[in-house]
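Structure tokens please, single chain.
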Amino acid sequence: ELRTLLTEVTDPTQLASIEPLLADLNSAIFFSPLLTPDSIEYTVVSGDNLHNIAKRHGTTVGLIQKSNNLLTDLIRPGMKLKISTAKLRIIVKKSSHTLTLLANDEPLKTYPVATGEKGATPVGEFTIEAKLIDPTWFHTGVIVPPGSPENMLGTRWLGLSLPGMAFMARQSLNRSA
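Here you go.
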């Protein structure tokens, strides 16, 4: 209903209030055990582990854990797991300093991010090569721990396929994301 409403509303103020609601709803459903058209139910067999299941289905251990409310890597034969088949990608908008996570081109969540000063962040398509949660910032002989207001890396760090480039979350994000 929100998606339909979004196509019918033309008032920018109303659009601005509907879009975040739709993104929050999409995100809540995507990261829940609820099966959707872009997911499958997988039954764990003897010898399975989350790493192999994720690799076989082109997803990540973290997404399987989050989507199935798993607090550990422990799985047992016979367990039913939701496995996302959605194509995930992100779009970074330098002008608004935002990163939007998309699943099959539907916005799931938008995060504030830091980008290069004075337009230094390059434009193009890249892959994420490394991810860090609560990174330590090593800066000209100073070690700035996670959580410090002086740590410019924020709570997440994404290393990109272009050497020396990364996007940093500037505000606290959902810890399980």
